[in-house]
Write a structure and sequence with these properties.
Blueprint lengths: L9 H23 L2 H18 L9 H23 L1 H8 L8 H5 L2 H9 L2 H11 L5 H8 L3 H18 L17 H5 L2
Helix pairs in contact: 1-2, 1-3, 2-3, 7-9, 8-9
Amino acid sequence: MGEAFTPGSPDDFDRLYQTAYPRVFRTLSAILGDPAEAEDCAQDAFVQGFQAWARWRPDAPAEAWIHRIAVNRAISYRRRARLRTIGETLRRLGRPGHGVDPAEVATRPDLLQALRTLPPKLAAAIVLRHYHGYNNREIAAALGVSERTVGTRLRQAAERLRAMLDPAFSLEPPSAFSSDQRESYAED
């Protein structure tokens, strides 16, 4: 760990990679408990380290520096993995209600007719959002426009559809939260 490295030197970083990778990998394997996840995090840590290599200061050993990056990557990885679990999602959001299948709503004749009257750019945005479930970033990438443009198109499409269909019509799924039914309790 006490080897001399020059910040920004690709050869020195290569030497650091060769000597530190096995230890970093073993550290991450112990933290994550999965060799594949440890390998992914180790690779990410070395990529991040290489990008910051010119800014590294030799006041701490280079291997300790790369270990700190790797451990932080592992902590972030575990946090994201925990958030992706269905149990955590249910704990945070609650169980979803039994709603209408979006495919059934999307094939309603009145909705299909209304979609045909929209300009193609607006129809594409609304179909990608509500039928395929894409978010604004994904729609922007698919259509080659900015996320802001996608938001504008979605808003315009929704306004036009509401004008053509029943004003209470919504493409949005019902809320998963029972507390959103507060209006019905207010009448009691």
